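Per your request, structure below.
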C-alpha cells in the first residue's frame, strides 16, 4: 500500500515590509551620539546604565498625599525620607543648585540638588542626567521658599538611559501623526492621553462588572472561525498551515453566543476584539472592541431598555455622571429614558417623506447618488436613514423597526412583516450600539440566509452574507425566544471622553504607511 500523499504546503507569503523609520535629523544624530558616549563612560566607571530593578520605591502621589508643605514651612525636613523612581521630564540649574522634575504613573515631584552639602560625585551624577532618562532618587522632604514640596537628593541611580531625545517638549506633544504612530511618546508627553487610556481600562472593566452583576455569563468566542458570521461585513482571511484550511478573523461572536443559549446558558456575553476588512474613518476601525450579549426569553424592547441602563450606569461608575461634554463644547445626556422613534417616523420628521407610501422614484431622487437598479425598497429606506438622518442625531436616540433586508438574523416584526424588530442607538451622529429580537425559527433562518446570499448587495464591493449551516443545525435543536445586542466599545469611549475620532481612543490604531 502506498503511503498517503503529504498535505499540500502553500508557499510562504513574504510579509510586507514595515514602514521605514523617519531619518534622523542632524540634531538627533548629535544628541544620540552624546548620550551613547555617556553610557560608555558610565560602564567604564563600573556603573550599569540599565540595572535589573529598583526595590522599595514609593509612588510620588503618596509623597504628596502624606505632606502639606504649608504645615512644614520652608526648608529641609530630614525625618521624612523617600525612595522614588520615574522619568526625568525637565531639568534646570540656578548657579550651584539644580532642579530635576521626575514623574511616575501617579504624578511628578521636583528634586533639588545643591553643590554645597551634596557629595561631589552625587552632584556630578545629577548633572549627567538627560531629559527622558529613567532615574531612582533617594531624598528627604524639602519645601522651597515659594512653598513647593520637593525632595532634597541623597542618592541617585540611573535606571535606564534614554538614547533618543524627546520628540517634543515632554509637557505637550501635539502632532497627530506622531501621537498615533508613536503612542509611547504621546503617553510620555500628554497627561490627557494617559488619563484617556486609564478611562478606557476602567470602562471595559465596568462593562464586564455590569454584565456579571446582572446574571450574564462571559463566553470566549473564537477569533479564528471557519465562517465569519453575525454581521454584514467583509472578514480578514488567513490560512492555518496544520489544518490546511482558510479561516476568518471573527467579525462577531453572535452565532457562538446563540449556540450557548441553545445549550442552556440563557444570558451570555462576550467582550473582545473583532475584525472587519473594510474602510477606515473617524468612526470605523478594522480592529475594534465589541461587547455582545444574548438575553433568553426577551425581545428588542427588553434589550434596549437594558442597554440604556447599562450605558448610563457605566458612565456613572467611570465618569461620575451621565452628562458628558464633547469636543465641540456641546453635551450629551445619557440619563434614561432615551428618545425612541421608528425609522419611518424619523425619516418623515426630517425629510417630510412617508417611506411606507412613497414611490420608488421619490426615494431614489432623495438619495441623489447613483442607485443600482436592483436596490430594493428596504435597501433604499436603509440608505436614506444612514446617509441623511443618522449623521444629524446628536442626543441618545433609539431608532427601531428597520426594513427586513437590513439584517438576515433578526425576527420579522410581529405586526408589519416587511420590517424587522431591530434597533440602533445613535448619538453624536454615530451608531454606538444595535440590537434585535433574534430569529429563532431554523427554517426561516435558512431561507433568509439564501435570500441574502442571492440578492446582489447595494454596495457592489460587499460580500454576500454567509449561509452558516452549522449555526442553523444548532437552531434546529430549539432556540428559545431571545433578544441580542452589541455595543461598539471604541465608539462608546469616544462619546465618554469627548473625542472626535476613534484613533484617539484606540491605543495603537491601524494607519496607512507614511508617505
Amino acid at each position: 500500500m502506498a503511503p498517503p500523499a503529504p498535505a499540500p504546503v502553500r508557499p510562504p507569503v513574504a510579509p510586507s515590509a514595515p514602514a521605514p523609520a523617519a531619518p534622523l535629523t542632524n540634531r538627533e544624530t548629535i544628541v544620540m551620539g552624546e548620550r551613547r558616549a555617556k553610557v560608555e563612560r558610565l560602564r567604564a566607571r563600573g556603573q550599569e546604565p540599565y540595572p535589573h530593578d529598583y526595590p522599595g520605591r514609593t509612588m510620588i502621589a503618596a509623597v504628596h498625599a502624606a505632606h502639606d508643605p504649608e504645615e512644614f514651612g520652608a526648608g529641609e525636613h530630614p525625618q521624612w525620607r523617600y525612595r522614588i523612581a520615574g522619568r526625568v521630564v525637565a531639568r534646570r540649574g540656578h548657579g550651584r543648585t539644580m532642579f530635576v522634575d521626575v514623574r511616575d504613573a501617579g504624578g511628578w515631584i521636583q528634586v533639588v540638588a545643591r553643590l554645597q552639602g551634596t557629595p561631589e560625585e552625587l552632584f556630578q551624577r545629577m548633572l549627567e542626567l538627560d531629559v527622558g532618562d529613567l532615574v531612582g532618587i533617594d531624598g528627604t522632604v524639602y519645601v522651597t521658599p515659594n512653598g513647593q514640596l520637593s525632595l532634597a537628593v541623597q542618592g541617585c541611580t540611573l535606571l535606564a538611559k534614554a538614547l533618543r531625545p524627546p520628540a517634543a517638549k515632554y509637557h505637550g506633544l501635539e502632532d497627530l501623526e506622531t501621537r498615533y504612530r508613536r503612542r509611547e511618546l504621546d503617553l510620555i508627553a500628554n497627561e490627557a492621553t494617559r488619563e484617556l487610556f486609564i478611562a478606557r481600562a476602567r470602562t471595559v472593566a465596568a462593562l464586564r462588572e455590569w454584565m456579571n452583576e446582572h446574571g450574564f455569563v462571559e463566553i470566549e468566542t473564537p477569533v479564528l472561525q471557519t465562517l465569519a458570521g453575525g454581521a454584514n461585513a467583509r472578514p480578514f482571511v488567513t490560512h492555518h498551515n496544520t489544518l490546511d484550511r482558510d479561516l476568518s478573523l471573527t467579525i462577531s461572536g453572535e452565532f457562538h453566543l446563540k449556540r450557548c443559549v441553545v445549550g442552556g446558558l440563557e444570558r451570555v456575553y462576550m467582550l473582545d476584539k473583532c475584525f472587519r476588512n473594510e474602510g477606515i474613518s473617524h468612526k470605523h476601525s478594522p480592529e475594534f472592541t465589541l461587547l455582545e450579549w444574548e438575553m433568553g426569553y426577551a425581545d428588542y424592547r427588553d434589550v434596549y431598555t437594558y442597554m440604556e441602563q447599562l450605558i448610563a450606569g457605566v458612565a456613572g461608575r467611570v465618569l461620575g455622571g451621565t452628562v458628558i461634554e464633547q469636543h465641540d463644547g456641546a453635551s450629551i445626556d445619557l440619563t434614561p429614558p432615551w428618545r425612541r422613534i421608528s425609522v419611518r417616523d424619523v425619516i418623515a420628521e426630517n425629510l417630510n417623506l412617508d417611506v411606507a407610501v412613497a414611490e420608488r422614484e421619490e426615494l431614489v431622487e432623495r438619495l441623489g447618488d447613483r442607485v443600482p437598479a436592483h436596490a430594493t425598497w428596504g435597501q433604499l429606506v436603509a440608505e436614506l436613514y444612514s446617509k441623511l438622518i443618522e449623521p444629524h442625531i446628536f442626543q441618545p436616540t433609539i431608532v427601531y423597526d428597520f426594513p427586513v433586508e437590513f439584517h438576515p438574523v433578526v425576527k420579522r416584526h410581529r405586526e408589519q412583516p416587511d420590517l424587522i424588530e431591530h434597533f440602533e442607538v445613535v448619538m453624536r451622529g454615530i451608531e454606538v450600539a444595535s440590537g434585535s429580537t433574534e430569529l429563532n425559527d431554523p427554517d426561516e433562518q435558512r431561507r433568509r440566509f439564501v435570500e441574502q446570499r442571492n440578492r446582489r448587495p447595494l454596495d457592489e464591493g460587499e460580500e454576500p452574507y454567509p449561509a452558516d449551516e452549522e449555526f442553523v443545525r444548532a437552531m434546529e435543536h430549539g432556540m428559545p425566544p431571545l433578544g441580542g445586542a452589541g455595543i461598539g466599545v471604541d465608539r462608546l469611549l469616544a462619546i465618554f471622553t469627548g473625542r472626535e475620532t476613534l484613533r484617539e481612543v484606540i491605543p495603537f490604531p491601524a494607519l496607512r504607511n507614511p508617505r
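Residues 1-17, 456-460 have pLDDT under 50 and may be disordered.

Regards,
D.
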